[in-house]
Design goal:
- This is Nucleotide pyrophosphohydrolase.
- A hairpin with a 2-residue loop joins strand 1 and strand 2.
- By secondary structure, this protein is mainly alpha-helical.
- It has a 3-stranded antiparallel sheet with strand order 2-1-3.
- The longest helix is centred in the first third of the chain and has 20 residues.
- The chain has 4 helices and 3 strands; from the N terminus they run ααβββαα.
- The model has no long low-confidence stretch (mean pLDDT about 95).
- The chain is globular, with a radius of gyration of 18 Å.
Length: about 120
């Protein structure tokens, strides 16, 4: 299994190879793209998809095709798990672009969070 930082590098290299960094993007643009993936997960939930449900999409003659099994023409994974993966991939890409050691940041933040009191801050949500 790859380390988090190896996945960061792989996601960023893929984004570069697909032209997503041919022109510089602002940090705000990157955060907006991460947010858009979260919104897509919420939309799938609002449309009634189950939390772990994966379906596949494709197009044929301009029509959108959906299937619950991957098959020729329906190969793009969709659903809440896929959108959550997209959030992580976009975060990985951003960390690769900006040289952020995400693995270290996660470990440090998780260690700190373990010291916090139950429902710290008393917020409802």
């Amino acid at each position: 299994m790859k380390s988090i930082n190896e996945l960061v590098q792989a996601a960023h290299e893929n984004a570069k190879s697909k032209g997503w960094w041919d022109e510089e993007r602002s940090f705000g643009d990157i955060i907006a793209l991460i947010h858009s993936e979260a919104s897509e997960a919420l939309e799938d939930y609002r449309e009634g998809y189950n939390l772990g449900e994966v379906y596949y999409e494709g197009k044929e003659n301009g029509n959108v095709l959906r299937s619950y099994t991957k098959k020729p023409g329906c190969e793009k994974p969709c659903g809440i798990p896929s959108e959550l993966a997209d959030i992580v991939i976009r975060v990985f890409d951003a960390c690769g672009r900006y040289g952020i050691d995400l693995e270290q940041a996660i470990n440090e933040k998780m260690a700190y969070n373990a010291t916090r009191p139950t429902r710290h801050g008393g917020k409802v949500l």
